[in-house]
Amino acid sequence: MPKDYFPLKEKTRYEYEFKSSEFDGIARVYIDIIKINKKGKNAVADARMKFVLRDEHTTEFKIKKDSKWVITTDGIVVGGRKEFPIPPKEGVKWDEYPDSNEIVSMTDKLSIKAGKFTNCLKVLTKIAGGDAGMATRYYAPGVGYVMEDYMAEDKNCFVELVSVSKLSDEELSEKRRRK
Fold first, then answer.
1. Per-residue pLDDT tens over the stretch 33-75
2. Which residues have a Cβ under 8 Å from the Cβ of 67 and sit 6 or more positions away?
């Protein structure tokens, strides 16, 4: 069975540390997978992103996964993007104008705050074709998005997974109270 580099699991919280040249300090970002709607091979997850630095900012977005792509409609470093094609294969390239992307490895090892991961999927992005910078992001099998190093003309960012946990009923109900 192929490795799942972006598993969608209901009631799951991903906690990240986020450093950026756009602000001082280290932000905490929580990505919560609230609910998943499945139809055949297609799945759409209702997700919530909470950014915490000196204050809090929360947005809701979708994660779409079908037989061809994993697509997010929002994200920590950049807005939505095509994360990677399914099934992922080393050497596969795709463009999201003006950026170009390539899966450059599926065997990377990482040791980060959330743990040690092997056989990670590594995507290299050439921002504006490489003229405006580079970004490297990693996905661990069975876990998902674990790290990103983004170096562009306008900003530098670093995202690292700290923990993965189950959402409590209280955390899930935060969404209902806001509506």
1. 999 999 988 999 999 999 999 999 999 999 999 999 999 999 9
2. 41, 42, 86
The encoded tokens of residue 67 equal: 């037989």
pTM of the model as a whole: 0.94
Dist. CA 70–CA 86, nearest whole Å: 7
Residue 101 carries which side chain, given as an amino acid letter? N
Nearest to 52, CA basis, from 162, 177, 173: 162
Distance CA 127, CA 134 (A): 5
CB 177 within 8 A of CB 157: no
Domains, the chain, ranges and CATH?
A: 12-178 (2.40.360.20)
Give CA–CA dist 84/145, Å, rounded: 11
Question: Taking the CB of residue 89, how many other CB atoms lie within 10 A of it?
Answer: 11
Kindly state the tokens that stand for 30. 């929580």
Give yes or no for a contact between 66 and 82, defined as CB atoms under 8 angstroms apart.
no
